[in-house]
Design goal:
The complex is a heterodimer. By secondary structure, chain A is mostly helical. Chain A contains 25 helices and five strands. In chain A, strand 1 and strand 2 form a beta hairpin. In chain A, helix 5 runs parallel beside helix 10 and helix 6 runs antiparallel to helix 10. The termini of chain A are far apart. The mean pLDDT of chain A is about 90. Chain B is mainly α. Chain B starts with a helix and ends with a helix. Chain B has one domain. Chain B is about 75% helix and about 0% strand. The chains are: A mainly alpha, B mainly alpha. At the A-B interface, helix 16, helix 17, helix 21, strand 3 and helix 22 of A face strand 1, helix 4, helix 5, helix 6 and helix 9 of B.
């Protein structure tokens, strides 16, 4: 036993070492004379950090112990602390994994040729480095500094193609949104400081959840962290940012950065001894709204990456539903429900990191080959890049929550938590959960519709526009990360039992969840899932062998697709992405507000002249609510602009005056 | 125990085409015709299995995989539903979610296979299939939630045996609403009238038939067989909720189950004889109505 303990202590030190390697990896990108060599060194260091960091994080997680380090910190706010506890160790896993896959992918996807590329390869290491600092931060100041470093390095990655106006706009929107969120966080930490008298984050369960201060802290966390996670009314920055970033940056943004928002919410909740029921119900409600609206907006998109971005909102919604159910279970004193909900939410978080990164990397390969993000210009890519297509198909099935892939496991846990809550409770808890179950089913159905559309339009049929002559399967640095992520999707789906101890350890902060008898293996049918997954694959193999033997012994001919007698079809006659989604977009029109230009055909003429048709689904919250509101606000507050005149000496005067007033106030 | 499992598997494998035969015979009799033999669907499957195949030049491996994945998923779903008063071969806590998602898996691959042909007709069929699928899945889950709340069980077996055993005397109102919702679901999921007409192949208002236009020979046989199996599995689900008494066990129980399934197909045939197909735009309304029925049932149980 002593050996194991010392191994754990060693492992937590190794975790810190790999985070340091990750942070150091940002240096060669900008400092080495050759951009190419710099990128290679950065990638090597990031991969090493992942190879060392993932196993040591797993060991630390399994040991369930907490290690703290005090840092040398010459600022007058007390010591800076790094704390590695099970929850932090769990969040380190996607950070290491996705940064490793993304930087390998970037070697071929965006080889550094100097100029801004150097900044990019450097930021691709600084970003995961600062995120690992966020989850390790044991005090507010370090947390905020790491948070800001993450926001800025993400911004620098996002504006890689800054010669395009669209990209610059997306960057500015992101910057405004993230800093608005940070404002809420500063208020949150100030309140915490008032409660505890120290900037060091209080131990888990040490604060009382009674009283107005805790309510305000929870609401501030919802706003500040929810904006980063992309919860539905606060998601306005997300679609354009994900769409306009380079694909490997989108992968890490969607796969990991959004999860930092979830981390913040979960971490805030762990500080309190027993969260009131309405916290859980609020998260459950917000999550349901995000999930349904996210996937509904995804259906209406024509831009491949924008569509994937809306799916991130959907999946963040599902994660929040899980965590909401878990909190309800905690406040109702039902450890079974709490475990199912929290473990389901956290597992979905890991799963979403894996399959969404896979989908963004696959989308990047396709965009690389077609030169466009527009779905309507693609088609037939399965013939050009069969391996990418297979990996993308795995990701698509996983994100729809289809068995035997990983998405199904986590959605099943959330479903079971919801079902148990309906069965064991009465009143608002039962009603909200009872409504959330069919909503989750609707989300599943809409996700299937959306990904059938995406995969069908991008990879199946024939190309709608002539491809570049050299369009081909990407090289191994791009295929390897995709293959690895696809394999993980299948493995987690087939053997979820392997992850059960990790999830149990990660949620063990609450005394209710520390009972020995409580385990995921008894509350959820994880062993059965392995059996059923293997049975499904076995049945499929059997049927395939049966069918192939039949095909071999009978005649097989090939011909053109049956066009109901029409002899000369063209690729443009294929069903398009918009027409595929049109029925559902029409049904959801009150939410999506689609608009478009429909040509009016003159009745008299036999052969009408050529005309154009366009349809579009706007970002409703931003375009129809927020921007008009801000414009109105601007009208009333424009007189304040006079304060901002660009004269440096007057700005200095402002600072001096503020300091003076504060000093007078303090000395009063 | 083992005997029951063997009978379960044999019934699931052998009986589904008979339901189609009964439906067609019912429709023929209602129309004043004599109709095809009851075993005609079996003959057709055998004929298709012997035939050669024609593949479109645009299709890939996914087109060939579609029917196989769909059938494998449906077969697995068949192992989760109790037939009559007997336990299914597989039952565990949470299998109801797997049951629903296996059908989603089948739908995912069937529609992808349709899009693989690059034909706009099949694209239309696929689009309709996923659109209506979005509306049917919540209905199924609403019913499952209501039944789970009443029975206190989270496996299909416990859920359904409670419904046909103990629940009718005190929960008849909720169960009647559920039967209505589930019967509409059965018709919609299996593309029967009033949602879809399985007999007219080349009309552009079709869903299922237009999706499989390009499949031929053995693959088409597998698709038809899979469709019959889906009718059988969902039919068994409806039968359980609809029967106000538990079907006994043993040989008599199996016999009663088979008779019940045949009566259910007669009911489907009667509906098809007296109704016309709905206009496509009205289909969502009927599905929302089914969701409303199920939601009322849930309301009665949650209260």
């Amino acid at each position: 036993m002593a050996g194991f303990e010392s191994a754990c202590f060693a492992s937590s030190n190794i975790v810190i070492a790999s985070v340091v390697v990750l942070l150091l990896a940002s240096l060669p990108g900008v400092m080495l004379p050759s951009a190419r060599v710099g990128q290679a060194c950065t990638t090597l260091l990031v991969v090493i950090a992942a190879l060392v960091g993932i196993p040591s994080s797993v060991v630390t997680l399994l040991a369930r112990d907490t290690t703290a380090w005090d840092l040398f910190w010459p600022l007058p706010y007390g010591p800076a602390q790094l704390v590695l506890d099970p929850l932090a160790a769990l969040f380190l896993l996607p950070i290491f994994l996705i940064s490793c896959c993304g930087s390998l992918y970037a070697l071929r996807y965006r080889p550094a040729r100097g100029g801004y590329d150097r900044v990019m390869s450097s930021m691709y290491a600084l970003l995961p480095g600062s995120m690992s600092l966020i989850v390790l931060a044991g005090d507010s100041l370090l947390f905020l500094i790491a948070w800001e470093a993450m926001a800025l390095s993400c911004y620098l990655l996002l504006i890689a193609d800054h010669h395009q106006q669209e990209v610059r706009d997306a960057g500015s929107l992101y910057l405004i949104a993230t800093h608005t969120g940070t404002l809420a966080l500063i208020a949150l930490f100030a309140l915490l400081y008032q409660l505890t008298g120290s900037l060091v984050l209080p131990a888990s369960g040490s604060l009382s959840a009674v009283g107005p201060a805790s309510t305000i802290i929870f609401l501030l966390a919802l706003v500040g962290f929810g904006a980063k996670a992309g919860l539905m009314p606060l998601h306005v920055w997300l679609p354009s940012a994900h769409a306009n970033a380079p694909s490997h940056a989108s992968a890490i943004m969607s796969g990991v950065i959004l999860k930092m928002g979830i981390y913040g919410i979960v971490r805030t909740v762990t500080l309190f001894d027993s969260p009131p029921l309405w916290w859980g119900l609020t998260l459950l409600g917000l999550g349901t709204v995000s999930a349904v609206a996210g996937v509904a907006f995804a259906l209406g998109q024509h831009d491949l990456k924008r569509l994937l971005a809306y799916h991130s909102i959907e999946n963040i919604g599902i994660i929040c539903m899980g965590i909401g159910v878990g909190l309800c279970g905690l406040s109702l004193g039902r450890p079974g429900i709490a475990l199912l909900g929290l473990a389901g939410g956290l597992l979905h978080l890991l799963n979403h990191a894996i399959f969404k990164a896979l989908l963004f990397l696959g989308a990047g390969a396709v965009i690389h080959a077609t030169g466009s993000r527009q779905l309507e210009r693609m088609g037939g890519m399965l013939r050009v890049m069969p391996r990418t297509a297979l990996f993308f198909l795995v990701g698509a099935a996983a994100i729809c929550g289809l068995p035997p892939f990983n998405g199904f496991v986590s959605e099943l846990l959330v479903y079971l938590g919801l079902f148990r809550q309906v069965m064991s409770e009465s009143g608002s808890g039962a009603v909200l959960a009872a409504l959330a179950i069919p909503a989750l089913a609707l989300v599943g159905g809409l996700a299937v519709a959306c990904f059938v559309k995406v995969f069908g339009v991008v990879f199946l049929g024939t190309a709608r526009q002539p491809l570049a002559a050299d369009a081909h399967e990407p090289g191994w640095p791009m295929l390897l990360p995709m293959g690895l992520l696809a394999l993980l999707c299948l493995l987690i789906g087939l053997a979820p039992l392997a992850l059960a101890p990790l999830l149990e350890a990660a949620v063990s902060w609450h005394p209710l969840l520390q009972q020995e008898s409580l385990s995921l293996t008894t509350t959820a049918p994880l062993g059965w899932l392995t059996l059923m997954g293997l049975a499904l694959l076995g049945l499929l193999l059997l049927l395939t062998a049966f069918y192939l033997s039949r095909l071999r012994s009978s005649s097989c001919t090939t011909d053109a697709t049956w066009g109901c007698g029409y002899p000369a079809p063209t690729p443009r006659m294929q069903y398009s992405a918009s027409s595929f989604a049109d029925g559902l977009v029409g049904l959801l029109a009150p939410l999506l507000r689609p608009y478009g230009h429909r040509p009016v055909l003159p009745q008299q003429e036999l052969a009408p002249a050529s005309s154009r048709f366009s349809s579009h689904v706007p970002e409703v919250v931003l375009d129809l609510w927020l921007l008009p509101l801000l414009r109105r606000l601007e009208q009333y507050s424009s007189f304040l602009r006079q304060l901002q005149h660009g004269q440096l000496h007057l700005y200095l005067l402002y600072i001096f005056a503020t300091l003076f007033i504060l000093m007078v106030w303090a000395l009063w | 125990m083992v005997v029951n499992i063997v009978i379960h598997i044999l019934l699931a494998l052998m009986m589904p085409p008979l339901l189609i035969g009964v439906i067609n015979r019912t429709k023929a009799l209602m129309a004043g015709r004599r109709g095809a033999p009851l075993l005609q669907p079996y003959f057709e499957l055998a004929r298709l299995w012997r035939k050669g195949s024609v593949f479109s030049r645009t299709t890939s491996w996914l087109f060939r995989a579609g029917p196989l994945v769909a059938l494998a998923a449906t077969l697995l779903a068949a192992s989760l539903v109790p037939f009559g008063g007997h336990n299914p071969p597989v039952a565990f806590v949470g299998d109801l979610v797997l049951f629903a998602y296996l059908f989603a898996l089948a739908r995912f691959f069937t529609t992808l296979a349709a899009l693989d042909t690059g034909s706009s007709f099949e694209g239309m069929g696929a689009a309709r299939e996923v659109t209506f699928g979005c509306l049917t899945e919540p209905v199924l889950f609403l019913v499952l939630v209501a039944l789970a709340r009443e029975s206190g069980s989270l496996s299909l077996n416990g859920l359904l045996s409670h419904a046909s055993g103990e629940m009718w005397p005190y929960g008849a109102a909720a169960l009647l609403l559920m039967v209505g919702a589930l019967f509409i679901l059965l018709l919609a999921e299996n593309c029967r009238i009033p949602f879809d007409d399985p007999t007219t192949h080349l009309e552009l208002t079709m869903i299922h038939e237009v999706m499989v236009l390009d499949h031929s020979g053995p693959a088409f046989g597998l698709i038809l067989y899979g469709a019959a199996l889906k009718l059988f599995v969902l039919g068994a689900l409806v039968l359980h909720v609809a029967l106000p008494f538990g079907i006994g066990e043993g040989l008599l129980g199996w016999l009663a189950f088979c008779v019940g399934m045949l009566l259910l197909s007669v009911a489907v045939g009667l509906v098809e004889s007296v109704m016309a197909r709905l206009r496509l735009l009205q289909v969502p309304r009927l599905l929302v109505a089914a969701a409303a029925l199920a939601a009322f049932a849930l309301l009665l149980t949650v209260r």
